[in-house]
Automatic annotation (TrEMBL):
One term of GO molecular function: RNA binding
InterPro entries membership: aa-tRNA-synth_I_CS, Anticodon_Met, Glutathione-S-Trfase_C-like, Glutathione-S-Trfase_C_sf, MARS_N, Met-tRNA_ligase_1, Met-tRNA_synth, Metaxin_GST
Protein family membership: Belongs to the class-I aminoacyl-tRNA synthetase family.
Principal location class: cytoplasm
EC class of the enzyme, as a word: ligase
Pfam family, one: Anticodon_3
SUPFAM superfamilies (alphabetical): Anticodon-binding domain of a subclass of class I aminoacyl-tRNA synthetases, GST C-terminal domain-like, Methionyl-tRNA synthetase (MetRS), Zn-domain, Nucleotidylyl transferase, S15/NS1 RNA-binding domain
Coiled-coil features, chain-numbered ranges: 926-973
Tree of life domain: Eukaryota
GO biological process: methionyl-tRNA aminoacylation
Domain WHEP-TRS: residue ranges: 835-880, 891-947, 952-1000
Name of the protein: Methionine--tRNA ligase, cytoplasmic
Domain GST C-terminal: start-end pairs: 70-190
Length: 1000
């Protein structure tokens, strides 16, 4: 086995250490890309195992060499290696390069090191008590930072656990031998920015993403220069004629027709950032790219509205399933509009079209012999008098090693494994907490086993167009034989089964939801079969976007249905599934309300395009990634403000100020053509990655073009040339003209990611959207701006995000949605009883939210749902004022608890900062809570005094029985004493009053 590497590449250390630990011999070969031996990505080090197997990723190579791949739960080792490659390695590359480092970047690196230090405080090694591949990768990346004394003092002085771990590994014989073979010195010095060699994960966004030498990994070839010249002269002429904009989009003969879907978001909650990047935002970026290439594109989505989750949410909020769907459809629609998601049509599944198409497909499936009847053991709640669908039952997870006490009847949120409801330990009805019994229920099943052969044949050929997570999930499902799967269930809310015998049942949501793509297309076009059952002369490709948990329904269940129906329906060509996006150090959770949600993003004041850019830059394409407030600020300030925004504003400002806004003539030299060739290399990579759904990687290449432009501006120094000789002035004019063309190219390539920003930039360029297109068959920089074209007024595109704001936002969105609601006095459920003071506080907060939204956009669809909430709150306030309040002991207890918590919060804030604007709002909340507590205590005393004279023995006995039942249910549902103790206090008080009444 051979390692090809360049000098001082610490990623090579990973391979050498892994090989030594595994007692494998490696030959170290010094190489450059000019050697002509590489046929894959231009990335070093490269591990050549034999003629058939080569690794271009150092982490993948280290995993291959080191036999202990993952000793952690849930793939944490792979996640840590992704974290090392995409976050730690770029930050260290920046500080180890010997250049001045911005304070926000220093803060990022220090936070990363402190996270490692905290992990090592708990464990001997990064992930536990045994060495893993993650230790090897991270130690190698930290090597230059630790062994350069000044860097160690600046960044590691307070990381004692990390230093202990580094020294312990450094003392190991295998690592000492690897360092010796590598050739580095324990005390340095290291060669400037080549310390970490070429970046290992090409999806990084520079300069955080990769060292500067990445731009010129190899000079342009003569063929590339000639292609650059051809594209510059004839690029615009060779583009296809733009398609006319039609209100109803249908396939067009002779054009590439692209049908795009994103997994239908469920309507039982507000979408969080993980949902948004995993589905609708990724699909929107790709759809906008397709339109940029002038593909005939239809992008449809909609809310998934049937199933148990809708019914349970409706029960929680005291309204009907239809009302809950209407409510959350408006919320989802407003969130996506704010994020600038450009659906061609955003629909829903609770439509007549959905019922018609779903029933038709099912009956055809039945006629073809793929539906059977089976008796199923189901949980039945005798108190509710109904069979319990999976989401209506909770209990202890039956899987060994998990035993999570709030697992659902279909899946455990902790271990992620699927569950049959009757397998739950100590099951309980989610509605009444009663323990259900097991009863038989006759259900209809789809015989997946009979369709397995055809499904395997299709998947084996189709999966070449799928992302790695989609392929992995498919192979895991097809590892074993497929079994029949229930397609009906005992519910009321859903598509009715069109068979008289089963008229009281509905279709299972796994069967119903994917059919929503067809019904929503029908609502959008009235001719859905033209897309979903296209004639042979139409070239239609189906692209689907989702998180990996939705993959089984799109590669197993729905394709099996379509194959069984056998009427020529379109099967998916490309599935671009993602892994999961985590939140800071935890996980996003809709059910528990953890993380940043779509409505939260609107309230931060950070523009939607910044959110789009950041989410795309951390898109979890190959493994889980994490949202970080600090990194959000760093990416905005470094990438958008200092890199992209700086280049665009400087280029256009030079044109406006020096040439009166007229684009100067560009007389290209050989050096200019070589520069364009390097730019074209990035444009080609952009297109290639976009076509494969690698949106994060494509974004990296866009930012590389911006860096090339900045470097060209600095090296040419047109502000100097324009003061020189005629030849210098011509050269300076060419430099400005070329930079303006690069701005136009950036505007085109970034439009899928940042549509609002690019609309503003187009105004500054004075160009129509149709003028900024690319040719996917021959991607290159073209003359978007003819000589003499008059641009608009240049303006800055981005603003700095201050660290103080990020700290406030991190604190604001900590905990769960319900925690925040309590702190902010929000009223979440119209069915809950609230005080006049709580409603007044909620109206104030909601009014402010409405004002901010109206100031940020003129789109009524964005802010109208919030206006409706405000009006509803005002109605509740009027009703509350008309009804005398009776305050009970439990409200006094809850207020006492709230006062204590708020007081603690105020003390911590005052200790952390002297800025009164930070903690004064919290002080005001504390004072308001104290006023409420005083009033509640007085009211409780008066109410109890009055009640003691009027209580009847019978009414008190009834109240005690009801309260006792309430206490028992609460104690059965949770061990949290803070939840049920107030109810116990009420029960004790009732018993005292009964004793007094009986004595009378």
């Amino acid at each position: 086995m051979k390692i090809y590497t360049n000098d001082n590449n610490t990623a090579t250390l990973k391979l050498l250490i892994a090989a030594n630990l595994a007692n494998k011999k490696l030959q170290l070969c010094r190489a450059t890309f000019e050697d002509g031996i590489f046929t894959g990505p231009q990335v070093l080090p490269l591990l050549e195992v034999d003629d058939q197997l080569t690794f271009f990723s150092s982490n993948a190579a280290a995993q291959y060499l080191f036999p202990v791949l993952d000793l952690s739960e849930n793939g944490q080792c792979q996640q840590m290696q992704e974290w090392e490659a995409t976050r730690l390695q770029p930050a260290i590359a920046a500080v180890a390069g010997g250049k001045a480092v911005a304070s926000d970047l220093r803060q990022v690196l220090q936070s990363l090191l402190q996270m490692l230090d905290s992990l090592l405080q708990k464990h001997k090694y990064i992930l536990g008590e045994k060495l893993s591949a993650a230790d090897i990768s991270i130690w190698s990346t930290l090597y230059p930072l630790y062994y350069e004394e000044s860097l160690r003092q600046n960044y590691m002085a307070e990381c004692g656990n990390l230093i202990r771990w580094i020294n312990e590994l450094a003392a190991a014989k295998s690592i000492q031998e690897a360092v010796k073979q590598w050739g580095g010195s324990a005390k340095g010095p290291f060669g400037a920015s080549s310390t970490l060699g070429f970046p290992q994960i090409s999806s990084l966004v520079s300069p955080i993403g990769s060292p500067d030498e990445d731009l010129a990994a190899a000079g342009a070839t003569s063929e590339e220069v000639e292609a650059a010249k051809e594209g510059w002269i004839n690029g615009l002429k060779n583009m296809q004629t733009p398609l006319p904009q039609e209100k109803i989009v249908l396939p067009v003969k002779g054009r590439k027709n692209i049908l795009i879907t994103s997994a239908l978001p469920y309507v039982n909650n507000v979408p969080h950032l993980g949902n948004i990047i995993g589905c609708v935002l990724s699909a929107d970026i790709f759809a906008r790219y397709c339109r940029l290439c002038d593909y005939n594109t239809l992008y449809i989505c909609g809310t998934d509205e049937y199933g148990t989750a809708t019914e349970t949410k409706a029960l929680e909020e005291g309204i009907t399933p239809r009302e809950i769907c209407d409510k959350y459809f408006d919320i989802h629609n407003a969130v996506y509009r704010w994020f600038d998601i450009g659906f061609d049509y955003f629909g829903r599944t609770s439509t007549a079209e959905q019922t018609e198409i779903a029933q038709k497909l099912f009956l055809k499936l039945m006629d073809n012999g793929f539906v059977s009847t089976q008796s199923v053991e189901q949980l039945f709640c005798e108190k509710c008098e109904r069979f319990l669908a999976d989401r209506f039952v909770e209990g202890v997870c039956p899987h060994p090693g998990c035993l999570y006490d709030s697992a659902r009847g279909d899946q455990c949120d902790k271990c992620g494994k699927l569950i049959n409801a009757i397998e739950l330990v100590e099951p309980r009805c989610k509605v009444c907490s009663h323990k259900p019994t097991v009863r038989p229920s006759e259900q209809l099943f789809i015989e997946l086993g009979q369709l397995e052969g055809a499904l395997r044949t299709w998947a084996g050929g189709a999966e070449r167009g799928w992302s790695a997570p989609a392929r992995a999930v498919t192979r895991a499902w097809l590892r074993d034989s497929l079994r029949a799967r229930a397609v009906t269930r005992d519910l009321k809310w859903g598509v009715p089964v069109p068979i008289h015998k089963y008229a009281n049942k509905v279709f299972y949501v796994w069967f119903d939801a994917p059919i929503g793509y067809l019904s929503i297309t029908q609502c959008a076009t009235k001719q859905y079969e033209k897309w979903w059952k296209p004639d042979k002369e139409y070239d239609v490709k189906l692209y689907q976007f989702m998180a990996k948990d939705n993959v089984p329904f799109h590669v197993i269940m729905f394709p099996a249905t379509v194959i069984g129906v056998n009427e020529g329906h379109k099967l998916v060509d490309h599935i671009f599934a993602t892994e999961y996006l985590n939140y800071e150090e935890g996980k996003f959770s809709k059910s528990r309300g953890v993380g940043v949600f779509g409505t939260d993003a609107q309230e931060t004041g950070i523009p939607s395009d910044v959110w789009r850019f950041y989410l795309a830059s951390i898109r979890p394409e190959t493994s889980d990634s994490s949202f970080s407030w600090t990194e959000l600020g760093t990416r905005n300030n470094s990438e958008l403000l200092n890199n992209l925004g700086n280049f665009c504003h400087r280029s256009l400002s030079f044109c406006a100020n020096t040439f009166k806004g007229k684009v100067p003539e560009t007389k290209l030299t050989q050096a200019d053509l070589e520069l364009i060739a390097l730019v074209n290399r990035e444009v080609i990579a952009y297109v290639q990655n976009m076509e494969k759904g690698r949106l994060r990687e494509s974004l990296r290449h866009v930012m590389s073009i911006s860096r090339i432009g900045n470097q060209h501006m600095q090296s040419e120094q047109p502000w100097v040339l324009l003061k020189g000789s005629d030849e210098d002035k011509e050269r300076g004019a060419t430099a400005i003209g070329l930079c303006c063309q690069l701005v136009a190219l950036l505007c085109a390539l970034l439009a899928p990611y940042m549509p609002h920003t690019c609309r503003r930039l187009r105004e500054q360029l004075n160009l129509e959207a149709v003028a900024l297109r690319i040719n996917p068959q021959n991607p290159s920089l073209v003359q978007y701006l003819p000589t003499g074209h008059v641009i608009g007024k240049p303006e800055p595109l981005f603003a700095k995000i201050e660290p103080e704001l990020l700290d406030k936002l991190r604190a604001k969105y900590a905990g769960t949605q319900s925690d925040r609601a309590k702190q902010n006095g929000d009223v979440k459920s119209p069915a809950s009883k609230v005080t006049v003071a709580e409603l007044e506080a909620a109206i104030t907060a909601q009014g402010e939210k409405v004002r901010q939204l109206k100031a940020s956009t003129k789109d009524k669809a964005v802010w109208q749902p919030e206006v409706n909430k405000l009006l509803d709150l005002k109605k509740q306030l009027e009703a509350a004022r008309a009804t005398p309040e009776v305050t009970s002991n439990d409200s006094v207890v809850s207020l006492e608890k709230a006062v204590a918590e708020q007081g603690d919060k105020v003390r911590k804030l005052k200790a952390s900062t002297k800025d009164k604007t930070v903690w004064q709002p919290e002080v005001d909340k504390l004072l308001q809570l104290k006023k409420q507590l005083t009033a509640a205590q007085a009211q409780t005393n008066n109410a109890q005094s009055a009640n003691s004279d009027t209580d009847s023995v019978a009414s008190l006995e009834k109240a005690i029985a009801e309260q006792g039942d309430k206490v028992r249910k609460l104690k059965a549902s949770t061990k949290d004493k803070a939840v049920w103790q107030p109810e116990v206090n009420i029960l004790l008080d009732l018993k005292k009053r009964l004793s007094a009444a009986q004595a009378k």
